[in-house]
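Per-record layout

source: Methylobacterium frigidaeris
name: HTH HARE-type domain-containing protein
length: 176
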Amino acid sequence: MFLSEAETEARLDDLRRQRAALDRAIAEHELYLDLGRRLARPGAAAAASAPTAPVEPTRPDPAPPSRSEPPRTQPVMQSAAKPTLAPAQPQADPPEPPTGATARQEGRRLIEAAEEILAEAGRPMHAAEIWERLAARGLTLPGHDPVAALNTRLWKRAQGGTVFRRLGDAVYGLAS
């Protein structure tokens, strides 16, 4: 039995929605695993507080590595001499952190934009989806993981009985 073109299109749309939901779930789990691994390593607190650019979750390469590659090994230091460091390149000063009033204004602007995004979408959205649209508008969040930071902000506001309502893990909608 064959499907009509309309049935095939509907089935494809449904499968694409399922794939998008799975991609979001995979990305969220990868982030949690990464966070757990960083916290389990000694000295992770210092490394986690260092400012870094957001990292997109990666998918494993579908092709397995060829067996002909030699195993990778760490180079062994032959002498007890300390390694020499190259002279530091002059870098631009990092931007000043916002003051209390400015930070609050930025936070309000971020939450207002998230509310607009949910209203425009007309449906509940995952924090990662909301963050993509916020970033497209040029908004930023401090920290290593902006999606987690946004999720925390939305979660706190959803508990406070504001316009946001938490519908699931990192999924938010507007209260009716």
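summary: Confidence is low (pLDDT under 50) at residues 44-51, 63-71, 73-87. The helical segments are 5-40, 44-49, 100-121, 127-136, 146-159.
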